[in-house]
Design a protein that fits this description.
The complex is a heterotrimer of chains A (211), B (232) and C (218). Chain A has helices at residues 46-53, 75-81, 97-108, 113-119, 135-148, 165-180, 192-196, and strands spanning 6-17, 20-31, 35-39, 61-66, 69-70, 82-85, 153-157, 184-189, 201-206, 209-210. Chain A is α/β, with parallel strands linked by helices and 211 residues long. In chain A, α6 links the parallel β7 and β8. Chain B has one domain: Four Helix Bundle (Hemerythrin (Met), subunit A) (Up-down Bundle). In chain B, α1 packs antiparallel against α6. In chain C, 85% of the residues lie in helices and 0% in strands. Chain C is mainly alpha-helical and 218 residues long. The chains are: A alpha/beta (211), B mainly alpha (232), C mainly alpha (218). The A-B interface holds A 14, 16, 18-21, 24-25, 60-61, 207-209 and B 139-140, 219-220, 222-223, 228-231.
Chain lengths: 211, 232, 218
């Protein structure tokens, strides 16, 4: 496949946690504009893979090109066009939803926070501190954070986690929207059936390896 | 699989050579050199104290060098050497403080006299011991290597600053002569001991670095093909 | 950079109750020091500067470890680094915010010192300058080390263990120059201590800024 149309080109990625290897010899390619679902049980390495590709952590072996940039040596460039929805909410508990988003937009520009808050259904809680939010609301806010960045490649780690059925619909809508906008989306989940409709590609991990 | 070294017995040879030099040098220093004019036999501790001081500074400088090289090259050999160098530095600094106290008691009647060099050594002892503690409390080898290198660089840069500040601070109190004079008639025991400690120190650092290397190898081992997920 | 500072001030403002608690801690330590010496007015006055700075130093460990607490709760720091935001910018923002917090604390403790130790002085600008320089000297390496220790085990013990030997020059210089400001400076020695503080700050603000991105990257 020619380089320009590849969003991700991973080869022999591996990552260690203490004495345990969370990811071993993972290689794959993903074309631009596609939606890839990474499936697997808990502990299979999905989160590790997303964290490596989004440059949150380094691989201990192997390498990958994300958007044409190397995850080991060109992390800043990758970060400019990617966004990660992580297990951690990346939020400040003592600040309000709006303030959390404003911090992001002050650093990188991007869409105005109120619009994004409305999109995820948190507009009426904009000025409440995050410490009063339920788990589902925090997830929505983290989603808003990702949308704010308008990424070319979005990494979503368990986007359905903690959400109610309305939230599920929101996730599907947002993924479809991102795809329509030409973004590449990588989603780690174990809700395979829900995403099977919109996913173009599926990668299954088992005990850190490609199954 | 045991690692191969170019000179496998070199550290042991260094340690043996160091012991020999120290024994000979100490013999000369204790029995052959004439007693110093003003301080008498107490001054003989200088034959060990001064070489220890030189080598302590050398060990810390070596640690500083290892830290910088490791940060630039990410080569694990240097992290292993850093670990050895920090441990030996702590040991030598501790010995220095003990020797200083042993000298101070009969001379000034107190165990500690706030001499700028000794006080700086005490501060450095705590600083480097702190770095050792840091290494113990960090499990991830990458973070451990990077953080202890950063901490070593910061601590070493502080050495001259601490020395000058303590010297100014102490100069406002009574002037005390520092234990620096050595019987000029006999530099031989001094040089012998200096080399003795140098060899001992290098041997210890090398041996310690090897132990650290082996541990690092098992921590950083690549995934084995036959094991899935969990490594024994 | 402005964005980083704004974030810090917003966070500090929201958690201002903690600042009050830290002030109480500092004031209490000053009280305890005076009990350790006893009701000897002359001795208390003589050592007032030392107690002030010891109190400030002990309180600084609380301030510094708190400063990364909010960042580590939900890994907010990682979130910012992925935006991308330059680690250096985040470091200077935090170190500056920590300095300001310590300066405010120092200023608040001065009246406590004056009252408890009868250590009044008219050289207010000098004392202010020393508090600023000393706080900056503690903050620069302190922010770097608390970034490390907030991710390690035994974080409460590790931070003072690493930080205290390092800032001995800051402590000496601050105590000496404050003492001279309170008790009188017939030989104009205060100037050289202030120069030492400036040199320390110059070296460590640049060095720690350089090293910070190695410390937080994963």
């Amino acid at each position: 496949m020619p380089m320009e149309s590849l969003a991700i080109d991973a080869s022999h990625l591996a990552r260690r946690y203490g004495r345990r290897w969370g990811l071993v010899d993972v290689s794959f390619q993903l074309a631009r504009g596609k939606v890839m679902m990474v499936a697997g049980r808990n502990g299979s390495g999905k989160t590790t893979l997303l964290k490596i590709l989004s440059t949150a952590i380094r691989p201990d072996a192997g390498g990958a090109l994300v958007g044409g940039f190397d995850v080991k040596t060109q992390r800043e460039e990758i970060r400019q066009s990617t966004a990660l929805l992580s297990h951690y909410s990346y939020l400040y508990e003592s600040l309000s939803a709006l303030e959390n988003l404003e911090i992001v937009s002050r650093f990188i520009g991007g869409q105005p926070p109120p619009a994004v808050l409305e999109r995820v259904g948190l507009f009426d809680r904009a000025n409440d501190p995050v410490s009063t939010f339920s788990a589902g609301m925090r997830k929505r806010l983290s989603f808003a954070r990702v949308l704010l960045q308008r990424p070319a490649i979005a990494f979503l780690d368990e986007p359905f986690g903690q959400l109610d059925p309305q939230g599920f619909v929101l996730v599907e809508e947002v993924v479809a929207e991102l795809k329509r906008g030409g973004a590449t989306v990588v989603i780690a989940t174990h809700q395979v059936e829900r995403l099977a409709r919109i996913a173009d590609v599926q990668l299954t991990l088992e005990s850190g390896r490609v199954a | 699989m045991a690692p191969t070294y170019r000179f496998p017995r070199l550290p042991h040879a260094l340690v043996a050579l160091g012991v020999v030099c120290l024994l000979v040098g100490s013999y000369f220093g204790l029995f052959v050199a004439p007693p110093e004019h003003y301080m008498g036999n107490v001054q003989r501790i200088m034959y060990v104290h001064v070489p220890t001081a030189w080598n302590a500074l050398l060990a810390m400088t070596f640690a500083f060098g290892c830290a910088i090289v490791f940060l630039f090259t990410n080569n694990w050999k240097w992290d292993a050497r850093l670990e050895g160098a920090i441990e030996v530095s702590v040991l030598l600094a501790f010995l220095l403080c003990c020797q200083g106290a042993i000298w101070a008691k009969p001379t000034w009647g107190v165990w500690w006299d706030w001499d700028p060099r000794l006080t700086t050594t005490a501060v450095l002892l705590f600083a480097f011991a702190g770095i050792l503690a840091l290494r113990r409390f960090v499990d991830d080898p990458v973070k451990r290597g990077v953080w202890s290198s950063v901490a070593t660089i910061i601590a070493y840069v502080d050495v001259p600053i601490v020395y000058f500040s303590v010297r100014w601070w102490n100069s406002l109190h009574q002037q005390q002569s520092s234990p620096a004079t050595v019987s000029s008639q006999f530099y031989l025991p001094l040089r012998l001991n200096a080399f003795g400690i140098l060899f001992l120190m290098s041997g210890f650092i090398a041996l310690r670095a090897r132990i650290a290397s082996r541990r690092l190898e098992s921590e950083l081992a690549p995934p084995q093909q036959d094991l899935v997920g969990e490594l024994a | 950079m402005i964005a980083a500072l704004r974030k810090e001030f917003l966070l500090q403002w929201r958690t201002r109750a903690q600042a009050v608690a830290i002030f109480v801690f500092g004031a209490t330590s000053l009280l305890l020091f005076s009990f350790a010496i006893g009701p000897n007015a002359a001795a208390l006055r003589q050592h007032a500067a030392g107690f002030l700075w010891l109190g400030l130093l002990l309180s600084s460990t609380l301030t510094l470890s708190e400063s990364f607490h909010a960042e580590m709760e939900n890994r907010a720091l990682e979130g910012l680094l992925l935006l991308p935001v330059s680690p250096r910018v985040l470091y200077y923002g935090k170190a500056l915010a920590n300095t300001i917090q310590l300066v405010v604390l120092g200023i608040a403790l001065v009246p406590v010192m004056v009252v408890l130790y009868d250590a009044g002085t008219t050289r207010i600008p000098t004392i202010l300058l020393i508090i600023v320089l000393g706080s900056a000297g503690i903050s620069a390496p302190g922010t770097l080390y608390s970034a490390m220790t907030s991710q390690a085990r035994a974080k409460q013990t590790l931070l003072p263990l690493l930080l205290f030997p390092l800032i001995v020059p800051v402590l000496l210089a601050s105590v000496k120059s404050t003492s001279l400001a309170i008790l009188g400076d017939p030989m104009e020695q205060g100037r050289s201590w202030v120069a030492l503080l400036i040199a320390f700050n110059g070296i460590y603000w640049s060095l720690c800024g350089l090293l910070f991105d190695r410390v937080v990257e994963d």
